[in-house]
TrEMBL record:
This is Polyketide cyclase/dehydrase/lipid transport protein. SUPFAM superfamilies: Bet v1-like. InterPro entries: START-like_dom_sf. It comes from the Bacteria.
Length: 152
């Protein structure tokens, strides 16, 4: 199991950050592999989001269904793959008020490394997956910080 957590302080109001990161339809703006995310309803427990993402040339459009299994308004949201999905993933997003008008965003990603074998056709050592995941998550945070500090 891969389990990575990364955080960033964003110079934007807490509510703006939470509203942006809790709407998975915004993910394609800051997560480079996401093609499109749709949602059946507003944010609520049991809501199903369907994410289409680019995994590799072998799997250029991977469809994943995610269920909101927990959330606390203006604080945290947790999505997880549905039971029976062959490639488990859980995404936890939380925000904390910082001094001034800044917000700390904490992003935790847990997933089964079988998705890498599915995408590439071969396995990679866990250490390599950890390094690539951490680098990707840093890039996500930089993208998100830029978007929220300049556009929202």
């Amino acid at each position: 199991m891969i389990d990575q957590t990364i955080q960033v302080v964003i110079n934007a109001p807490h509510k703006d950050v939470y509203n942006y990161i809790s709407d998975l339809r915004n993910d394609r703006e800051w997560r480079t592999e996401v093609i499109l995310t749709s949602s059946q309803a507003d944010l609520e427990i049991g809501n199903i989001a369907i994410e289409s993402s680019f995994l590799s040339r072998k799997i250029p459009q991977y469809i994943r269904r995610l269920e909101c299994i927990a959330f606390q308004q203006n604080d945290m949201i947790l999505y997880q793959t549905l039971d029976g999905d062959p490639h488990y993933l859980k995404s936890t997003r939380s925000v904390q008020i910082c001094e001034g008008d800044s917000t700390r965003f904490i992003y935790r990603l847990e997933f089964d490394q079988s998705i890498v074998k599915h995408a590439l056709g071969f396995s990679l050592p866990k250490l390599n997956i950890d390094v690539v995941t951490r680098r990707s998550m840093r890039n996500y945070m930089n993208n998100l910080k830029t978007i929220l500090e300049t556009n929202v």
